[in-house]
Amino acid sequence: MSLRSSARALPTLLRVGAYEALAYRGEMIVWMLATTMPLVMLALWVAVAQDAPVGRYGQPQFVAYFLATFVVRQLTGAWVFYTMNFEIRDGTLSMRLLRPVHPLLAYTAESIASMPLRIVVSIPVAVLSLVIVGSGAVTHDPALWVLWAVSITGAWLISLCVNFVVGCTAFFAESSMKFMDAWLVFYFVLSGYLVPIDLFPPALRAVVDWLPFRYQIGFPVEIMTGALTLHQAAALLARQWMWVLIGAGATSVLWRRGLRQFAAYGG
Amino acid sequence: MRYLRLLGIQLRTSVLLSMQYRADFLLDAFIEVFWMATAIIPLFVVFRVRPVIAGWTFADALMVMGWFTFLQGVLEGAINPSLLTVVEHIRKGTLDFVLIKPADAQFLVSTARFLPWRAVNVFSALGVFAWGFVLLGRAPAPGHVALAALTMVAAVVVLYSIWMLTVSAAFHFVRIDNLSQLFSAVFDAARWPIQIFRGAVRALFTFVIPLALMTTYPAEALLGRLPMATLAGALAGAVIAFTLARVMWRASIGKYTSAGG
Prior knowledge:
In chain A, 75% of the residues lie in helices and 0% in strands.
């Protein structure tokens, strides 16, 4: 299971994953439509900002913010915990272990492979945002866009690690799906997905700044919509990647421990 | 009478089944309560900025949230599990066993499975109502409570009918679990009073997917400001939805050919 053989298998894995995503495109598009929450919040906040802006958000800023949220959610989505959970439970994981590619890498490739389809869905929304709000909807600083790309990668990596950690709990616990439910509760409320972080009461905000959730959605959105200066963005980026490292560390520990007590059933 | 007894039996088996998973029950109950509490944070933030939005104060909006929580309990505890079982039956072809039983098939499939622990949501809903009325500084009038209960019956009937229509669709498409995901995503919008939405979205949520009927109208009834005409419309809507669901179910059953064991 050397790194080189894994790397050589990567293009094939990606291709297989992309075909798979394409084969279930109908299903995937329904899944994406199911992430309409930002649009509901958009309608709500636009109504709230009807008479006067809220904080620094007027109606156009809210439109830009929530359409960006939709795009970021699409680009950072990862749902491999579902497959992992299933395969650990019914023992098909042993098949993966036999292959000369690290299973976690294979899962990662599956997740990346669904990206092209996700990007295709995001483009119309991004264009719509530019049409409605004008070019003020996004930042014009190229340096910020570079940071944005890094932050999107970081956000996706955090999601992926959360998926891995929750997936690994299937080694130890019976109802591992519930952990994801619990995570999602926090994720929806504290990530800036429903309410922009800067509208939170200050005390809550200070806490949220140190939690991982904001770095999964709110942070890239804020860079994208020009809410942060270069300096602020760089500082927050460091905290985001701290969470990436924590996630990766937790994944590797749990994976190794779990594998040790993994016993494939049936087969 | 016979159907009441049948319902009793179905309920008992479900309770016995769920009792086997007590740890799950506790975790589930905890997540439900917690989810409800966090779901109020956006409400809190929104109303901190503006005391009144589209004619709703924070206390008023809590009523909508309360009914939403209540309905979610009904949906996940009584409607969803049963109807997902039907989909399984259709896919495996085991629906035959239900159809040959000497009772109405729609009744049997609709009562096949209950998740009693989701009833936690009903209690959370009562808590939310209590909080709202404390903020309002008054108790609800008994007449209004009765009206709200009546509206809620209409809401549950409509919710059930929508699900029944989805299940009927399963006869043609087989896989509908992502449709149910889509529905829960849309249903989330029912946390907010309908008056917040405008134009096409409001029309959509009033007439096509009647979220207004499900949470806003019962909340208005509880606050004692639901116009009688709207109530009549809601009840008529419920009757129409139920009839439609019944007709569609009969038609789908008529066309059903077993998937060969």
